[in-house]
Amino acid sequence: MVNFEEAKALGDESHQILPGGRFVIVRLKTWFDPSTISEHRGDSPLAPGPRRVVLVDDAAHLFPESSQGKAALARLGGGTIPLSQSLRPGESYVTDLVFDVPANARSLRLFVGDTFDMPDRLLMCLDTLRTDPLRESKRVASLEWERLTAIIASLSC
Question: Cα–Cα distance between 73 and 60 in angstroms, integer?
């Protein structure tokens, strides 16, 4: 994660979008580490699999990306590169993710995982900008999404 910030509104003065609570904007960097592939692979691009991206608070509430917030941010500074963008070894890009969370949501964690409940997950605690990978990924992969959110909520930042 590059950084995150909060906003009470997004857009220019003539066309502001207001959140239900507050906007949380997360800037996430994706990098294709060239040391993770065979030297015989070549330089062709590789597309990441589909991703489920949510913020989770300390009460295990899930907050998906805000399409209105994302559109307002795009109008302000141009588009953002989607997490599905293909990369060649050594390349990177930055994606802006926008969430609308209640004003009282605390201990927010960014959850990035695949959409097929495989053990490919990343959890970032926004309060401290630390990363906490889930240790028991094989066991976690078999859990239902509702149980997984309870585990995420129990992890301390």
Answer: 26
Average pLDDT over residues 103-122: 74
Q: What is the domain-level CATH number for residue 107?
A: 2.60.40
Domain membership of residue 119 as a residue range: 3-34+46-154
Count Cα neighbours of 60 within 13 Å in the Cβ-side half-sphere: 11
CA-to-CA dists, residue 86 to 51, 73, 133, angstroms? 13, 23, 24
127 lies in some domain: yes
This prediction's pTM:
0.72
Distance between the two ends of the chain, CA-based, in angstroms?
15
Contact predicate 125/43, CB 8 Å:
no
72: burial class by Cβ within 10 Å (0-12, 13-18, 19+)? buried
Q: What is the pLDDT of residues 135-155, one digit of tens each?
A: 333 333 444 455 555 556 555
**Contacts within 8 Å (CB) and 24+ apart, 133-137:** none
